[in-house]
Design goal:
heterodimer; A: alpha+beta; H-NOX domain; 4-stranded antiparallel sheet; 6 helices; 6 strands; about 20% strand; elongated; B: alpha+beta; 2 domains
């Protein structure tokens, strides 16, 4: 048996769920042959496996990155970003905090839900090693750790988180921010 | 159809891939049929997204390469505001920071990309890193020079200049020097030649 390039390839039968096989077969007909479609699918499963992931995880990850890009996130060199922040923080401390706070409010509203916000931030903010948001009594605790964050970066990301939580209906009752570590406590706002 | 395969269909597939798939499913402790089912479900999911699985896996690899190269994901509005605030007084410093970041990134590319043309890879990367670039093109010209053009309808002037500095830094690490640079808000045109110019 030959493949599309004319090379001889041994084939084997693969058992697949009937409904899936039918749908795949329908798509494959429009694009080429079922054999080629299955071939491509299996190759990508193996590529994903070599990356230590399943196809589902890779497609999920793509969805998160795409959502982030669509909402205005962009990629920049880490060093450049930190240099900019340090430079700007010396000159525009308060103004910068407002900028982060407002940005956080925007993303809080955009993601619209604490779990979605947490899941997305964990996947896209690559320079944080830990982000946890959980309830403790009637308080909502937000903890974040990044060994890369200076005090200024930590302060600003704290403001971002405060803004995000505010737009999700929580007000800050206590905050402890030091270099690399952010600990915030929120309470649900009464009118929410 | 053999017994125990009710509701299943047989599909022909390359034997070597089936064997590798079987090894992968064993490693993951999943049954082979579940493994195949999940793969086909994801192929359908990709199809609904109008993408091939290859495109999706390629995209993921490219994104992970950015992480490895020391890039992070930040809100563009914040970056733009930072640049806007700092640019009037710190223009030269910013140019230098962007150029240096480009140099570092270029060094990473030069070290990482072995079997492909790093310029082709750079073009792919610029298309996905989210600078709102609608058009990105590197073209190899006669005589060994390379032209670069990019267009964005939303990139502010300051960001355009800084992006140009970044590209200059990357190309510098890949062994190219600029012989022509021209820009307007959201548009960059450059030409590079190899080595010392």
């Amino acid at each position: 048996m030959n493949d599309s390039s004319g090379k001889s390839v041994k084939r084997k039968m693969l058992a697949a769920r009937e409904d899936l096989a039918d749908k795949i077969s329908e798509i494959a007909k429009r694009k080429g042959t079922l054999y080629d479609f299955i071939n491509e699918t299996l190759q990508e499963v193996i590529r994903a496996d070599a990356l230590g992931l399943s196809l589902r995880e890779i497609i999920d990850e793509r969805g998160i990155i795409k959502m982030a890009k669509d909402s205005g996130f962009i990629f920049v060199p880490e060093r450049l970003w930190y240099d900019l922040i340090e430079m700007a923080h010396q000159h525009l401390g308060r103004e910068l905090e407002n900028l982060w706070y407002e940005n956080g409010r925007w993303y809080g509203r955009y993601y619209g839900d604490i779990e979605v916000l947490k899941k997305n931030l964990k996947r896209i903010i690559w320079d944080i090693s830990e982000l946890d948001i959980y309830s403790e009594g009637d308080m909502l605790i937000v903890k974040c750790i990044s060994s890369k964050y200076s005090r200024a970066c930590s302060m600003l990301f704290g403001k971002f988180l405060e803004g995000a939580m505010n737009s999700l209906g929580y007000s800050l009752v206590e905050g402890d921010i030091s270099r690399s570590v952010i600990n915030l406590k929120f309470k649900l706002m009464k009118d929410c | 159809m053999p017994k125990g395969y009710k509701g299943m269909k047989l599909i022909r597939a390359p034997e070597d891939l089936v064997s590798r798939l079987s090894e992968a499913s064993n490693r993951e402790g999943k049954s082979f049929i579940d493994f195949v089912t999940q793969a086909l479900e994801q192929a359908l999911r990709a199809h609904r997204m109008n993408r091939s699985l290859k495109e999706i896996v390629d995209f993921y690899k490219l994104i992970m390469m950015q992480k490895e190269a020391g890039l992070i994901i930040v809100p563009s509005e914040t970056l733009n505001r930072l640049i806007e605030m700092l640019y009037p007084e710190k223009k030269e410093v910013l140019h230098e920071i962007w150029f240096d970041s480009g140099v570092l990134y270029g060094k990473y590319l030069a070290a990482k990309i072995k079997d492909e043309d790093p310029i082709v890879k750079l073009e792919e990367i610029l298309k996905v890193i989210g600078w709102n670039l609608k058009e990105v093109e590197f073209k190899r010209m006669d005589g060994g020079s390379i032209s670069f053009k990019c267009v964005s309808f939303t990139l502010p002037l300051e960001d355009t200049v800084l992006l140009m500095k970044f590209i200059e830094g990357v190309m510098n690490s890949l062994g190219y020097k600029p012989v022509k640079q021209d820009y307007l808000r959201g548009m960059i045109e450059m030409e590079f030649k190899r080595g010392d110019v």
